[in-house]
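Hey, quick one: can you model this chain's 3D structure?
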Amino acid sequence: MTNQKEIAENRGYSYKCFSKKVLFSASIILILFFLIILFSEGKAKADIYQYKDKSGNLVLTDTPPGNVENREIIKYKDGRSSRSSGIRDIEKDLVERYRPKSEIEKASLSTVTIKTSIGQGSGFFINENGYILTNKHVLRVDEKEMKKTEEFMARVDNRIEDDEATITEVENRLRRMRSDLDDYKAAIDRMTDPNAQKIAMQKYRSQSEQYDFSEAQLRKRKNEFEEKTSRYRQDKGEFTKKARMAKHDRQFIVILKDKTELEANLVSVSNDHDLALLKIDGCKSPYIQQGVQKEIIQGMAVFAIGSPLGLGDSVSSGVVSGYDNDYIRTDAKIYPGNSGGPLINAEGKVVGINTLKLITHKFEGMGFAIPVRRAFQDFNKYLNNDQ
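Sure thing. Here's the predicted structure for all 387 residues.
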């Protein structure tokens, strides 16, 4: 693994030293004093307060400051800075704003929309340290699906070439027909027998009408074909470009329940499952607790939360229908955009990650979710440790 400095430099940041002009000798003594207290083996358990007095001097004390209005206060406790030192408390902000009245509403605070190069999907906070679970295919095109798409586009390209050849052949045929009609008309004009000329002219008009109809039909179909082909090639180019970009994307926009947009970094993707792990740094996040695997039984009520069809913060309900190749099968409605969102039980605990949907011609399809225990297995070193 790369160290924090390498990670920071990869994200476009750099480690900088403080200017010597800023570090007055008195400040150095105070900071050293603070570090000795903070990191010594017998460190004090009392809170340490740092603030600037009216004269702008740095003050460190274990006594809560009095009236320090309009002065910056940084409170330290056991070596960890509080929210005022830069840690954003997302959980507190969302709870205070929405005041959830049920476990389902509480779980919705932890569910997010994820914007990527190839579209958008859902995800959810899995611990208070800003880690977010989602599907790998939300972030990038699945390699197997990409191969299938490329094969399909190749077939479309071949069909377009065949249709272009057919159009060219019909155009050449009409061109010859037009030339023959012109020659026929010239021959009619040279006729000396009025009756024969009249009969020939009627035949010429009939054939000209057939030509005009065929030429108009070809022109209409050719315009439609060229319009659809142009749109297809444009969409193909955009898809290929986005898929190529998504393969290398490491940062994504995460939209919270209150529409706040934050930047999340890609931590890891699963080699075995359609799972990915993101992280928002510098925050205390709400999160959904993990449900117990053995408590997932057929007929139990479950709820899918996500952003289906671009509609954020949506909940659908259903029951666990069973298991299918280690997927949790449910009749809870899961639409495009739900992928990566949580499947939770009535207690608001996550049991699965919504990942795909099968649709038949006769009835609304069944939804599928990866058991959440798979995510904890794949991302064990991140989720089972205090990062």
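One thing worth noting: The chain has nine helices and 18 strands.
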